[in-house]
Amino acid sequence: MTFPSLAAFIGLCAILALTPGPDSFLVLRYSLSNARSGLSAAFGSSLGSIFWAALVGIGLAALLEQSAEAYRIMKIVGGLYLIYLGVTAFIHSRRMQHGPLDGERTVKNSSIRSSFLAGLLSCMLNPKVGLFFLAIVPQFLPTGNASFGLTMLLGVIDFAVSMIYLGVLSFVATKAVLWLKKPSVTKAMERTSAGILATLGLGTAISANS
């Protein structure tokens, strides 16, 4: 791969990362709790790129492009998962309104694991990311030499670009919360991000049947 091609691919990855979507709002939502949870969600979301690169490398992701039914099912499942995340985030904000829960340290550790899994599943269940890899990655593979290794390398590059952007987003969101330091503001932001996630999920699920 030539340097101009590599630069072009990195630019496309940056555009994908900067486009507002479930991953960005998910990272913002977890960053309101603490920095580790936000970065964990960012890492999980970014790692999903390698998952899609692997599927493209072995040819399974082509099913999404060839089968409208498979694409529709994945959109519905992904939408329902986003609705679930939004509802649980709203419930969490209401519980925190009544003060810290018992076993706060355990909850924080659990939050880091759950935020990572939430980010990873959000990306893995997002067919638009899969279609991005199907449409873009083959254009940067040598003709007649679409190796699995090179496909995975492109996936790692997208992972790095996404992680940089989402990591910065998490850092800024965490600093903003620490600066505001008002429970009422934090609660409002948590509920807003929860509502956005649920709305995105509902819209995704409905669009799958249109």
UniProtKB/TrEMBL annotation:
<feature type="transmembrane region" description="Helical">
    <location>
        <begin position="70"/>
        <end position="91"/>
    </location>
</feature>
<feature type="transmembrane region" description="Helical">
    <location>
        <begin position="40"/>
        <end position="64"/>
    </location>
</feature>
<keyword id="KW-1133">Transmembrane helix</keyword>
<dbReference type="InterPro" id="IPR001123">
    <property type="entry name" value="LeuE-type"/>
</dbReference>
<feature type="transmembrane region" description="Helical">
    <location>
        <begin position="6"/>
        <end position="28"/>
    </location>
</feature>
<feature type="transmembrane region" description="Helical">
    <location>
        <begin position="148"/>
        <end position="172"/>
    </location>
</feature>
<dbReference type="Pfam" id="PF01810">
    <property type="entry name" value="LysE"/>
</dbReference>
<protein>
    <submittedName>
        <fullName>LysE family translocator</fullName>
    </submittedName>
</protein>
<keyword id="KW-0812">Transmembrane</keyword>
<dbReference type="GO" id="GO:0015171">
    <property type="term" value="F:amino acid transmembrane transporter activity"/>
</dbReference>
<keyword id="KW-0472">Membrane</keyword>
<keyword id="KW-1003">Cell membrane</keyword>
<feature type="transmembrane region" description="Helical">
    <location>
        <begin position="112"/>
        <end position="136"/>
    </location>
</feature>
<dbReference type="GO" id="GO:0005886">
    <property type="term" value="C:plasma membrane"/>
</dbReference>
